[in-house]
Amino acid sequence: MAEELPGVLILDIGGTHGVLENLAALLNKHFQLITMKEFLGNKEEMSKKIQSIFVFECRPTIDCELLESLPNLKVIGNSGVGVDHLDLRMISSFGVKVTNTPHAVADSTADIGMALMLASARRLVEGNVLN
């Protein structure tokens, strides 16, 4: 009998605020993905399976009520650089760890910063409008 994968709570797959479909496919190899809709539809069963929450674009919202409903929660993984949107003190009071991806967008951010500085110095936007 195969071992059951740990459950990870996500807001949704695809759509406006859901996890990107290709990212969901990667996560699905290592976790049982549980959407917020599935969780809310069957809290009693799903709450026992969830060991992690994957926060994508600041969703789902992590609050005291959610943490109280997840007795086996071990880690919250944030797919972004900052964790300002998370109440770290409250989360740690539940014995839950928080991770993030601090270098995931460093190169892209630097590229955009350089492009904006060059565009500003060379007045590229103004030149484009005039043509």
From TrEMBL:
It comes from the Eukaryota. Residues 26-112 form the D-isomer specific 2-hydroxyacid dehydrogenase catalytic domain. It holds the Pfam family 2-Hacid_dh. Gene3D superfamilies: NAD(P)-binding Rossmann-like Domain (3.40.50.720). SUPFAM superfamilies: Formate/glycerate dehydrogenase catalytic domain-like (SSF52283). GO terms for molecular function: glyoxylate reductase (NADPH) activity; hydroxypyruvate reductase [NAD(P)H] activity; NAD binding. This is HPPR reductase. It comes from Dryoscopus gambensis. The lineage of its organism: Eukaryota, Metazoa, Chordata, Craniata, Vertebrata. The gene is Hppr.
